[in-house]
Design goal:
Length: 456
């Protein structure tokens, strides 16, 4: 009768020894040989009449090895399930035990494995964690900029004969030239649309009075200030950190001149943007815009709470991990065995990711956090609607349902969607545990802070 014993060989690191007696594998081996004998198709013998001795000679070694290893695997799995051992990954063979197998001399065998045990630990007391809920102050400037953006977006463009003011819109073509304005063969040629005010203040006078069909030769560093120049350079397919890019010359062909007429702030405009609301005055409209801006920043502030919770859980949860075992396991996960140097280089990031996985697994288990099939379907619907810019009225259409069912058969997609939903639920659970203090902050300060603490 097979037995399995356990021996500690390090921190959360155990050695499992599986001892097989002949009676644990020989009956299965002999049965397998008989099955081979019945199915073998060997020239000179009728099917099912091949002598057992010949079958044993031809297939015996491989069948014998298979049955012994199958018995080992069965006993190992049964032991892990019976003793409810929570381990990382799969048991690793400690040595090449397969060399001891001898078909001509069946005997008792012992196979050794090593396993890394999952740790027992406590999560930090989230209600006592120092968490801040940031409240971004919505300034009049932010409000005015958004109102102007909406007026421009829904405004009307009218054609103009000449360039006369900073608000003129120019449809142009950039054509790369030399200093004298001679076009460079195979040089850059790119269409764009620019407001006159995007050009540097000194250069704008060169544009005044120009008509459609006129051109002007410019050097990027003189025509644009740094902020505008950077995105112009990138739009032209150049790199903004290339010091030579700003020195390039271009012929600027003006193909069209326009002037954007902003939408008036009247009831008709308010109704177009918010048909379900009864906005009568400019004050009503501006209050609604302020409310929406605040909601956007509040959403980002909530993400910041999640970031703080992430650090609280990851940085303040004391967890021991079987590092010796894990390093050995990492080495075996590719076709090409990794060197010790490669493992040591990758290990800190791997360990941090594993720690987070262990923490979230505990949260999921202890709080019965589940992802239901219909939640996966709803996630898929909303994702598609977002990609295509559609509204919820499309949700129940047949083609939408067909698409959702198709995606539910894509294992990789379902795993990714499952992980996203589960992660969101984990943070929602954690958000309910904390008791954040509210703090006023400017949009600029908040943005800098968020960029410094960005995680995937």
């Amino acid at each position: 009768m097979a037995t399995v014993t356990k021996e500690n060989i390090g921190l959360l690191h155990e050695k499992l020894s599986v001892k097989l007696e002949k009676t644990d594998y020989l009956p299965a081996f002999e049965k397998a040989l008989k099955e081979y004998s019945k199915k073998a198709n060997i020239p000179g013998f009728r099917k099912g009449m091949v002598p057992t001795g010949l079958i044993k000679k031809m297939y015996g070694p491989s069948v014998y090895t298979d049955e012994v290893l199958r018995s080992v695997d069965r006993e190992l799995v049964k032991y892990l399930e019976t003793d409810k051992l929570e381990i990382f990954a799969q048991p690793l063979p400690l040595e090449s035990d397969i060399r001891q197998l001898d078909l001509n001399n069946p005997s008792d065998y012992i196979f050794h494995f090593e396993v890394g045990m999952k740790p027992d630990f406590k999560l930090p007391d989230l209600p006592k964690a120092k968490i801040t809920r940031y409240k971004v102050s919505i300034t009049d400037e932010m409000l005015n900029n958004e109102v102007t953006r909406l007026q421009n977006r829904y405004g009307n463009m009218k054609d103009e004969e000449t360039v006369a003011q900073d608000e003129n819109v120019l449809n142009v073509t950039f054509i790369e030239t030399d200093e004298k304005g001679n076009e460079i063969e195979n040089g850059i040629k790119k269409e764009n649309s620019l407001l006159v005010k995007y050009f540097s203040e000194n250069f704008r006078k060169e544009l005044t009075g120009k008509k459609a069909g006129d051109f002007i030769v410019l050097q990027l560093k003189n025509a644009f200030e740094e902020k505008e120049r950077d995105w112009i350079i990138e739009d032209l397919g150049l790199k903004k950190d290339d010091t030579a890019a700003a020195d390039k010359y271009f012929k600027l062909d003006i193909t069209k001149i326009g002037l954007l007429e902003k939408r008036e702030l009247n009831e008709e405009f308010f109704k177009q943007l918010y048909p379900a609301l009864d906005l009568k005055t400019e004050e009503d409209f501006r209050n609604k815009i302020r409310e929406e801006i605040q909601l956007q920043w509040d959403g980002q502030a909530r993400n910041q709470i999640h970031d703080q919770v992430y650090h609280e859980l990851l940085d303040h949860t004391e967890i021991s991990l079987p590092e010796t075992f894990l390093k050995k396991w990492i080495k075996t996960q590719n076709e090409k065995t990794k060197s010790d140097e490669e493992v040591e280089s990758e290990f800190p990031v791997f360990l941090r990711q594993l720690k987070w996985t262990v923490i979230t697994d505990k949260i999921v288990k202890e709080n019965d956090i589940r992802v239901l099939p219909e939640e996966l379907r709803n996630f898929t619907r909303q994702q598609l609607l977002g990609y295509m810019g559609m509204n919820v009225s499309y949700e129940q259409q047949d083609w939408m349902n067909d698409y959702v069912e198709k995606m539910m058969k894509d294992r990789k997609y379902v795993e990714d969607a499952y992980n996203r939903i589960q992660t969101q639920k984990i943070f929602e659970w954690a958000e309910q545990q904390v008791q954040p203090e509210e703090k006023e902050i400017s949009a600029e300060e908040f943005t800098k802070m968020a960029e410094a603490h960005h995680h995937h």
